[in-house]
Specification:
This protein is mainly beta and 306 residues long. It contains three helices and 18 strands. Strand 2 and strand 3 form a beta hairpin.
Amino acid sequence: MKTIKHKFISTLFICLSLIALIPYKLFAQDIRKPQKISMEESSNFKLKYGLGLSTRYLWRGLDLAQAPTLEPYGIAQLSHFELSVYGVYGLYESAPKNQDFARLTDPTNFFAQRIAFTEVITNIYYNILAKFGTFRLGITDYYFPDQYIGFTVKDSTGAVTSYAYKIPRWLNWDGDGKGAHTLETSLEFTGTEKFPLWLLFAINVHNDPDNAIYLEAGYIFNLLQNKLTIWGGGTIGASRWYQFHYASNDPTKQLKEGNALTNFGIAFSREVYIESWLILNFSLQDVIDFYEERNTILFSTTLKIE
């Protein structure tokens, strides 16, 4: 433990020393007055990042973080390709957790503790431009660092002896619901400014036994200086991923059939340009969650650096 601390302190000291050796004028010039790049380079490569703050985190109608969240993101665009990363971090505890997942034998003690919701989303897109809109092919990785993975413990005869949980290690790429990553492929169409319609088709292709399918459609209107967005989305077939499970005779499980509308929403949003490269976005959403049969209004703001 002391060795790790010594290495950390030594590394930090070296980094601070190198920063101190950089001439202030050179540092200020590089940061405040970046060198001009050619029009071709600026059009082919773009780098965007920022931070969002939301009163709640709803994803496709699912109330995943029942608490305010911080949502950092970064986007790198090169020609038709795009790589983006998003993080979602709850500000206080909201999700159930057990004290000892590795040795849990009694599932009834699963709700002993609560933890803050966390999620990391990584996207790779390829955009195909057309006169009537843009087609986007994508693959998305969903990773939940604190959502422990449940598994059954069997004896030498194959009989189930207990049910336990394991830590979702990032290098765990197992499938069939036993891995730390769920991969989704998607096809999205976005119309032009004159006809801003969008259509989304997404299907889970890894680590989801149900291979959940999601469809979504929406339209954007201009209202005064705001954008009014209306959308609706739903699943095809029973899906644990979207909480529309297979039918069950056990009323305590509250399972529901698939082929259902999962969410319907309406949002007002507006962007304020502080500088040409610094944007502040405000959004007010009213979302209906058809699984829990509840209505949620949330407000979010995002600081964008572009």
